[in-house]
Amino acid sequence: MSDVVGVTGASGFIGSHIVRELLEGGTRVLGTVRRPSEVAHLTALPGAPDRLELATADLLDEDAFDDLVVRCDSVIHTAGPYTLDVKDPVRDLVEPFVAGTLNVLRAGRESGRVKRVVLTSSMAAITDEPDPKHVYTEKDWNVRSSLKRNPYYFAKVSAERAAWEFMKREGRDAFELVAINPFLVIGPSMIPALNTSSRIFAELLNGNYPGLMDFAWGMVDVRDVATAHVRALEAEGASGRYLCAAETVTMRELVRLLDQHGYEASARIKFNLTGPVGGFAVKLASWLRPRGTGAYLRSHVGRIPRFDNGKIRRELGVEFRPVERSILDTMESLEHWGHVPRRTSPAQSA
Ligand code: NAP
């Protein structure tokens, strides 16, 4: 199925790992990037000189993907502005995510060659305010987001909905669609830019968190996310959505792990903002933060996400790395790219 694979957003945090994994598997890759100057990490990959071709494409340019997609047997659509805070939510989030996804799907249908498109959706399309009593699965849809409430979440759920509606309307006989819904993606970055998901770690170590809070994240390693995308292309019966998360980690557990490995995280946290009083203070303070971040804080504090990742393990055979390993690899990567101070004390139990 995947003789020639198109990858949009090939130079991004997740896209780069997908390209690496495809090249390692001997696949020919046609990638799109927005900034052709930022691709040295891709062209240096083993297999790249013979099997990687890159083209420039912007999601908002309706025909930008046509020439590339027509030469692909399948496409992984990962490009999109992963950021919570923007000036103009429609122009900066909804349009690139929704119109961009439809542009790629239209190109796929018109190519007559593409057999499957794998869409990088998100947990944002599953929930934007985890109910700690509920175990989330692929059946859950985020129905609460709006442009005003949390534009990134709204854009992601709108894009996935638009994709499934497109398939119902005009794509069904042309090709298949599979969606991967990753939670917080962590792990080593092949690029210097600080990904929004790694910002949590960087802010913690740079002393930007006012206190220990009742936060918990469903985390997944970027290398496992890449594997999930590649398996979703190749697995015979892959269909529908795949919730993609390894384990839930609380902020308290994260701080403890970082301390154990010499990162001195607790020393950079001044206050204890856990419990109902702390939660109230966090919600109050969230109104002083930029809109997207503030909304995230209010809808996630005190809410431990629970999920069932059985479908992706069963149907795509994805085995998730232990999350502690992924966290430590994230830290090494952040140190490497200069986003956090280098450890001065050696790891105590590494
Ligand atoms: P990333 O590193 O910022 O990658 C996003 C890629 O999309 C970049 O290569 C970016 O190009 C490209 N892009 C953005 N706007 C574009 C546009 N208008 N036209 C063409 N390309 C554009 O972020 P990421 O974490 O890899 O995110 C990839 C996908 O995963 C996104 O769809 C995101 O919503 C989704 N996702 C991410 C996470 C996570 O925790 N990281 C979790 C769930 C879902 P530039 O480099 O030029 O900006």
Structure description:
With 350 residues, the protein is α/β, with parallel strands linked by helices. It has a domain of 238 residues: Rossmann fold, CATH 3.40.50.720. The protein is 40% helix and 17% strand. The protein contains 13 helices and 14 strands. The strands form 4 sheets. A 7-stranded parallel sheet has the order 3-2-1-4-5-7-11, with helices on both faces. Strands 8-10-12 form a 3-stranded mixed sheet. Bound molecules: NADP nicotinamide-adenine-dinucleotide phosphate. NADP nicotinamide-adenine-dinucleotide phosphate binds next to helix 1 and strand 8.
Please sum up the structure shown.
The protein is α/β, with parallel strands linked by helices and 350 residues long.
List the defining traits of the structure above.
350 residues; alpha/beta; three-stranded mixed β-sheet; 17% strand; binds NADP nicotinamide-adenine-dinucleotide phosphate
The CATH topology annotation of the domain at 4-191 and 217-248 and 304-321 reads as Rossmann fold
Assign the CATH superfamily of the domain at 4-191 and 217-248 and 304-321: NAD(P)-binding Rossmann-like Domain
Strand percentage: 15-25%
- Small molecules bound: NADP nicotinamide-adenine-dinucleotide phosphate
The CATH class of the domain at 4-191 and 217-248 and 304-321 is Alpha Beta
Number of helices: 13
Task: Tell me the Rg in angstroms.
Answer: 20 Å
Q: Are there runs of 5+ residues with pLDDT below 50, and where? A: none
